[in-house]
Specification:
Layout (H helix, E strand, L loop, with lengths): L2 H10 L2 H11 L4 H8 L3 H14 L10 H15 L24 H13 L4 H9 L5 H20 L3 H14 L4 H13 L3 H11 L5 H16 L3 H11 L6 H17 L3 H14 L4 H13 L3 H21 L7 H20 L4
């Protein structure tokens, strides 16, 4: 159905059907519609089926009236969203859906609408406010919003990422990955208070997101010079961390914290573990160069700086997440200065 066909069907509806339709869009239950119009609930259901038929929607007999309602609301969110905001009525529990009555079609339809109208989050939220979603549906929607938000994050569209992720945790406050991604997005915008707030929530869920959140909080402690707190945080979870990427960055941040404490040997041990896990891991070469310089091993340090610049450049081309850390840009400038200075002292013949 296109806009022209939609308008034709809508304009041809009888006044009575339009009255029922407007109450559906406002979230009024079958029972309340029946009482307000002086008809039976069975008549209301017939109206809904007939309206769905007029708009070319699924009209097969079904006890799951929630699906019929969601189709209508989704259709009007697409072609006539202004009707969703008129005189909204309080949404009451119409059907307490049991697990065996869970209809995946509701979710598929809603998520398809989200993918089409991704940028119109306010309209999407108004749509969902009109539908009596069960907990499983809210969780599925939150997962999809988190996925879209993370996609925007990877594209450096942090404001749009936050919009989707905030809506994700509104639909499912217990979705740990969305809280972690929100923390990361807020950190990119230098809102460290909100970043830490969402990291702290993510920590509660004892999963990959929790380990990554602790890792990021430890890194923020290091940036503030609180290396002892960072060591305590990381050492508590490092033996339990299973995700290889999280484990890699935990060793890197632990090495960084030890370097701040002038514990060069311990720092070097963890950096060598990093390079064993991933032999082209640019941040590890960068920190190793600094450790070697502090130990007076200048030639080794130069080699590590050169490796850092090589792999950092590759990471930027591949748009790896590790290349987006702001401290790496600072270290890159230092690496270029040192390598250039060394080249000037020992020009090739």
């Amino acid at each position: 159905m296109n806009q022209k066909e939609f308008e034709r069907v809508f304009n041809n509806l009888t006044d009575r059907r339009k009255e029922v339709l407007q109450k559906i869009l406002a979230g009024v239950t079958d029972r309340d519609i029946a009482e307000s119009m002086g008809i039976g609930e069975a008549s209301v259901r017939k109206y809904i089926e007939r309206i769905c038929y007029e708009f070319g929607l699924n009209n097969e007999p079904s006890d799951n009236r929630r699906y019929k309602r969601s189709e209508l609301v989704a259709l009007f969110a697409k072609y006539k969203p202004e009707l969703l905001t008129r005189n909204p009525a309080p949404v009451t529990k119409e059907i307490e859906a049991e697990p065996d009555r869970y209809n995946v079609n509701v979710i598929e339809y809603i998520l398809n609408l989200l993918s089409i109208n991704e940028s119109k989050l306010e309209n999407f939220k108004q749509l969902l406010d009109r539908i009596n979603l069960i907990p499983q549906e809210r969780k599925e929607i939150a997962k999809s919003l988190n996925f879209i938000g993370h996609k925007h994050y990877l594209n450096h569209d942090f404001a749009n990422a936050i919009s989707h992720l905030e809506l994700a945790v509104e639909f499912n406050p217990n979705h740990g990955p969305a809280h972690y991604n929100l923390g990361s997005a807020y950190e990119k915008l230098d809102d460290l208070e909100k970043a830490c707030h969402h990291y702290q929530i993510a920590i509660k869920y004892q999963n990959r997101a929790a380990d990554a959140a602790i890792n990021n909080l430890a890194r923020l402690q290091i940036l503030q010079g609180n290396s002892a707190d960072a060591v305590t945080m990381i050492e508590a979870i490092l033996p339990k961390a299973k995700d290889p990427i999280v484990k890699l960055t935990l060793h890197k941040n632990l090495a960084w914290a030890y370097f701040q404490q002038n514990s060069y040997e311990q720092a070097k041990q963890h950096l060598l573990i990093c390079l064993k896990l991933e032999n082209n891991y640019a941040p590890a070469y960068c920190l190793l160069a600094q450790v070697q310089a502090a130990e007076g091993k200048q030639q080794d340090s130069i080699g590590s700086w050169q490796n850092f610049l090589t792999f950092y450049s590759q990471d930027r081309q591949l748009k790896k997440v590790s290349s987006k850390l702001p401290e790496l840009d600072v270290w890159k400038m230092e690496a270029m200065r040192i390598v250039k200075s060394q080249a000037q002292k020992h020009p090739s013949t």
